[in-house]
Amino acid sequence: MGVGKAMFLSEGTAESGAKVKFEPVQTNSIRQEYVCDKNEVAAAARRVIEMEEKGKREEAVNNILQTVRPKLDKYKFGDIIGMQQFRASKLDTTDIDDVNILLFGPTGAGKTCLVSMTETMFGLERMSAPQAGGGEGTIHLEPFLEKHTGGFKLLDSRGFFTLDEDFMSELNDILKGQTQALDLIKRKYDDIDSRAVSNTNEEILANRIHGLICVLDYNDPRFGKYKDKMNQYRRLFKKEGYSPVTVVSYKTEEAIPETVRQTKQEEAAFALGAAIDRTFIIRNAVAQSGGMDNNEQAILLQILETALLGAEQFIKIRKLDEKWKKVDEKRQTGGGVAEFIISLQKKYKWEQKDVDDLSKLFEDEDIGTTAALKENWEYLKGKIPKWGIVDIISSELH
Fold this sequence. Notes:
Elements: E1 3-9, E2 19-26, E3 34-37, H1 38-73, H2 84-88, E4 99-104, H3 111-121, E5 142-144, H4 146-149, E6 152-156, H5 165-175, E7 211-217, H6 226-229, H7 231-240, E8 245-250, H8 258-272, E9 279-283, H9 294-332, H10 337-348, H11 352-364, H12 370-375, H13 377-380, H14 387-397
Parallel strand pairs: 4-6, 4-7, 7-8, 8-9
Antiparallel strand pairs: 1-2, 2-3, 5-6
């Protein structure tokens, strides 16, 4: 017959090795007694707790797969923090087509493998080609995923051997968009013929790197030294406004003990100046057979979502900086053109339609200050139909 419920009953003082009576209550009147070792009872209790924790983990994993994956699969700029944050601050983001996420780290750490795992997770044809045998693989700034999502791309960079000044300069050029997608990341010891790099000194926000993922190898013998060697990089990321994501990649099929995992996670977070909740450990599924399980897909989705969160916040901060810089420029050049037109309207009794037409013209031509108006006046006055207004503005400007 079925069992209604179970109780643990102890007999007297339970010394080490003492017996504990486990007495299930049957739905019929038959009573059965089982005598088991106290350690067995404790083990059974631990198994129950582990099963409950496993159930919670599986629920969390399923939630990520069901919510985060569809969002990233159809990602558009602003989906993470919300476009209302940009609209509320009146920030123009029409120039941002793709969010650029840079993967960087030591040679052989697993950067390209992380790209391959992402392509596989989204069901894409694998365009990335992870290196084999420990040699150097990627030497160009390779873009991936841009045609799939239409909202972000991963840029796989050349791995570093040493954290010297040359690599700092190389990384800085990539961050600022002076080295762009498909450019050769050329080093002084290279003997390679390739097309010239973009080599532009103009900083355009859309061309910049917006988010960072640093990939480190779990078994890298230099791992513990990165916290000292990467001081200047932490300062650079902080100065530029980046919130890097750190990924520790391992190749073994065996699970990593939790205490070891925590230590490695803390070391990696400190090395990059990343928060612990922006630091992840993931198995390199490309290097092992069997592909990714649900848990590994969930971790990869969290990595991408966290990187995109930092990227959107980076763009917002940069846009705010641009906005306030323009305000400062107006103050330094004697005010804005809108205030100038309004003052002329009051002085010369212009009709509102004439003022609206002027405002639209100057807005279309991106004339925001009286200094810019004066500089471009010879060109602009030919676009104003009323010569009386042209004569007045000419007189007031000079």
